[in-house]
TrEMBL record:
It is a multi-pass membrane protein. The chain crosses the membrane at residues 12-35, 47-65, 71-91, 112-137, 157-175, 187-208, 228-245. This is TerC family protein. SUPFAM superfamilies: MFS general substrate transporter. Keywords: Membrane, Transmembrane, Transmembrane helix. It comes from Anaerobacillus alkaliphilus. It comes from the Bacteria. It holds the Pfam family TerC. GO terms for cellular component: membrane. InterPro entries: CHP03716_TM_YkoY, Integral_membrane_TerC, MFS_trans_sf. Belongs to the TerC family.
Length: 258
């Protein structure tokens, strides 16, 4: 049973790394655009200050949400938020391209500290996304013998904490690799947000099974049947997204010539 538990936790952590990687790449692209207008020597400072703010917020909110996650209203808000950002991404990408581009052009003249503030706010928003995805994935994992931290089982907290640390590491050091992957397979960005939406559905099911609502059976929400359904559809989304995201010809030529 211990081996099965470790495998399930390890699998969730691998999924988190993949989601964090794609989201971090998307976030890195946004933040890079925000600081692009600054002199070269100021860009790195703006990114470091912004990342420091994200680090503080991410771990502060992690301890806060560990106490709040068992409240069904918080679960419902989290589910709605994850579904909302996924829908917003799809609408932004496929319906509001010109409007977003115009807004980004307007922001190019910002001074150093205003740019730092914008990067801080963007990092905070990205941190909320990452934490909610991690919590939604960890919440229905089997409990462990580890002591509770805040309101979360020690094992659940460890997965969420690991997801937060991995997200920051990827954003700081490995985002470039994921940016290259997104350049080559741009459809993966949409796939990542469809995964986020599906994780939002998982959190919604968890909320609806809360004892105060009992709209869905707790046995179903934490049972094998729902786990099989959830992971099967998630893998279907990932595999379909990978094969339907065609390689960009220009990127293939660049890679062959480099």
């Amino acid at each position: 049973m211990e081996i099965a538990l470790l495998l399930e936790y390890g699998w969730v952590l691998l999924i988190l790394i993949a989601i964090e990687g794609i989201l971090a790449a998307d976030n890195a692209l946004v933040i890079a655009t925000m600081v692009k207008h600054l002199p070269k020597e100021q860009r790195k400072k703006a990114l470091v200050y912004g990342l420091a703010g994200a680090f503080v917020f991410r771990f502060g909110s992690l301890f806060l949400i560990s106490y709040l996650i068992h409240i069904w209203q918080i679960q419902a808000i989290g589910a709605a938020y994850l579904l909302g950002i996924a829908i917003y991404h799809l609408v932004k990408k496929y319906m509001l391209k010109r409007y977003i581009k115009a807004k980004m052009q307007e922001a190019k003249g910002s001074g150093f500290w205003l740019t730092v503030l914008k990067v801080e706010l963007a990092d905070v928003a990205f941190a909320v996304d990452a934490i909610l995805v991690a919590v939604a994935l960890a919440a229905t994992l089997p409990t462990t013998n580890l002591p509770n931290i805040g309101g979360l089982d020690g094992g659940h907290f460890t997965i969420v904490l690991a997801g937060g640390i991995i997200g920051l590491i990827i954003m700081r050091f490995a985002a470039g690799k994921f940016v290259d992957l997104l350049d080559r397979k741009p459809g993966l960005e949409t796939t990542a947000y469809v995964v986020v939406a599906w994780v939002g559905v998982k959190l919604a099911v968890y909320a609806l099974s809360h004892p105060e609502l009992a709209i869905i059976s707790t046995d179903f929400a934490k049972g094998v049947t729902w786990k099989i359904i959830f992971w099967s559809i998630l893998m279907l989304i990932v595999v379909t997204g990978w094969f339907m995201s065609k390689d960009e010809p220009n990127q293939i030529i660049l890679q062959k010539s480099s």
